[in-house]
Amino acid sequence: MSIRKTLNNKLHDIKNGIGDQIEELKAEIDRRFGNLGRRSGDEILRALPEPSGMTMPLMEALQERESERSFSNEPLPDQLVSNLLFAADGINRKGGKRTTPTALNWRETDIYLLKANGIWRWVPERRALLFCALHDIREESYILNSQFTLPPLELVYVTNYSRTRSLITDAVETIAPKIRSAAFSEAAIRELRIRSTNIDVGAKIQSVYLAAAAMGLSCVARTGFSAEKLAAKLHLKPDEEVVAAQSVGYPAKSILDHIK
Ligand SMILES: Cc1cc2nc3c(=O)[nH]c(=O)nc-3n(C[C@H](O)[C@H](O)[C@H](O)COP(=O)(O)O)c2cc1C
């Protein structure tokens, strides 16, 4: 990597307050998938271009938003992937704050990208994709084997519950059984945590639907898959859960697009 690129990355890190966390994340992904070593630095962390375009007025994007399940197998260029991820979970302010809200600013949703060229993880602080594995597991995000062309991109939203713990929530959970209030019971807090994290994913899904509409892409949110099977393929930890997937791609132009 060039000195200029290294300095730029460092500056980006300092601005977004993530310091050396990227090295920890790389090591973590390496432990889970075990084959990062086969790739060079630039390939492991694939920087995406700055988001741009998507100039459609919001009113028009809202008019255009719909679920479309028919895709061309043409891969999406990095610019469009960057725009989609900016919509889902891009940094738009100081302090690493995002385009979509999260309860208590937990930022607990990780986004994995399933593509023909492998599994990747979105790293918002670097505006980059971290390579995880070479396997094409797009098919695993469906209950039945799809008879149609697979979309070039499956976004997979994973809730990392370990990030929903903080001094405040831990304190409330410790005190709850002592004050015996139903509002603060362990079950109520668990339910609140699940409800909030699912809403956080929902906000991302709608944001991506609008971005897809603004770029003329087909898009559909999906929960119809085995979360357990997909979690195993992504080597998730026990406190991580797959919540939803979202397929995105160019619309199919002709019947030939459906030939796998
Ligand atoms: C949480 C959620 C889960 C969904 N799961 C699926 C799914 O598994 N498969 C699918 O084809 N569509 C799925 N959809 C898309 C809905 O079927 C679609 O939004 C609905 O039919 C309304 O159509 P519209 O999005 O075009 O307005 C899901 C949508 C949401 C919000």
TrEMBL record:
Signal peptide: none annotated. It comes from the Bacteria. Residues 63-250 form the Nitroreductase domain. One of its GO terms (molecular function) is oxidoreductase activity. InterPro entries: Bacteriocin_Proc_Enz, Nitroreductase, Nitroreductase-like. Pfam families: Nitroreductase. This is SagB/ThcOx family dehydrogenase.
